[in-house]
Amino acid sequence: MASEVAQIPSEETPAAVAASTENPTAAAAEQEKPAAAEENAQAAATNKEDAAANKQQENENAPAANKEEGGKSQENATAGAAADGEAKKDDAAAAAAPAKAEPAPPAQKFNVHKANFEKDIIYLYQFSRTPLLPSLSPYCLKVETWLRLVGLKYENVDHKMRFRSKKGQLPFIELNGEEIADSAIIIKELSAKYEKNLDSGLTAEQRNVSYATIAMLENHLIWIIFYWRAKYPDNVLKGYKVNLQHALGLRLPNSILNFFFKITFGRKGTKKLKAHGIGVHSAEEIEEFGKNDLKVLSEMLDCKPFFFGDEPTTLDVVAFAVLSQLHYLSKDIAYPLRDYMTEKCPNLIGHVSRMKDKCFPDWDEICTKLDLNAHIPKPEPETKEGKEGGEQEKSNEQEGPDGDKIEKELEKDKSNEKESTEENKEKEETK
């Protein structure tokens, strides 16, 4: 391009010719101007050429750069898509995977004596049996009589009188891992839970009479009986034929156990009686108190089978539990209060008998075997026929293939014996 521009002739103008003639120096300058202009034009052309070349080079390089950038962006897009796919896979796997089982809550711990209890079974803790009476405690006998009368499932726990409730009392029950103590509270809570209210048919006045009479029995007449027991502990053991070795589950001789019983029972009983208030009176006064209580009960019962009619109520349960402590005392032991009830209050004796027949059909079994759970059906023992049948089956089994082998061997032995005897006979004949 530079050579092509230099070959173009410069155009001389009239002004340039005139100036050259008038001033040769200026003319020379004027002559040099075209040359400079030509050089400038040539440089400009060169610059244009370089710029064009650079632009062409840039145009040539731009696609490659764009390709590289496009490749990078494509790679980034591919990587992003792959990452998104992995994230979706992880989410899908997490959703498809079964949820981890949450740790089971710790088993509930029950603060009861019967750890392996069954649901809705009432476990009764009371005193041991005696040969004449299911329980020497009127309160224990009251709870068991009520349970039998309303038909609730219960089981006596043979604890040998070692356990007491948290209140320090007997009886108490355990139900579904919960302890309930005090006979009155036991009956109240079970009545509400199982809807077994024996007094639902009574009028308001009858309920009030029942409440007052029960208070007389449990807070007065019972303590009169306890007074006699504390004063004559030896007669308690003899009158109810108590075997302390069996009742307490100890191996010590009864003579030693009886000795300590007389001391401890008499001493503790006397303290309780004085704390109650009945113990400050004389023996004659206390006996008179008891006779008055029995007379009131007899007049209330009159000729009725039960205190409020033909069906027993809570008052009948409590009266039976207390009066049976008097009635079933051995006749060999003198007790004026028992004799008074037998002679002057025969209707009370009849009441005790009716309640016994109604609630304790297994009374004789209880007193004979001293079984705490005679009311629970026992598994039937194996009969003799079953045993004979088993022996017959065994004999039949022996008569199988092994039996046949034995018979064959015996027959062979017999035949061999016969052959040997015949040979001996022949030898003797030849001789």
Largest sheet: 4 strands, mixed
- What do the pLDDT scores average to? 79
**Quaternary form:** single chain
Strand adjacency order, main sheet: 2-1-3-4
CATH topology of the largest domain: Glutathione S-transferase Yfyf (Class Pi), Chain A, domain 2
Order of helices and strands: HHHEHEEEHHHHHHHHHHHH
Question: Could you say which structural class the secondary elements and strand pairing correspond to?
Answer: mainly alpha
Level-2 CATH architecture of the largest domain: Up-down Bundle
Radius of gyration: 59 Å
What does the overall shape look like? Answer: globular
Helix content: 55-70%
- Sequence stretches where pLDDT stays below 50 over 5 or more residues: 1-37, 62-67, 393-403
* Tally of distinct domains: 2
Number of extended strands: 4
CATH class of the largest domain: Mainly Alpha
Distance between the termini: 166 Å
Note the beta-strand portion: under 5%
What is the helix tally? 16
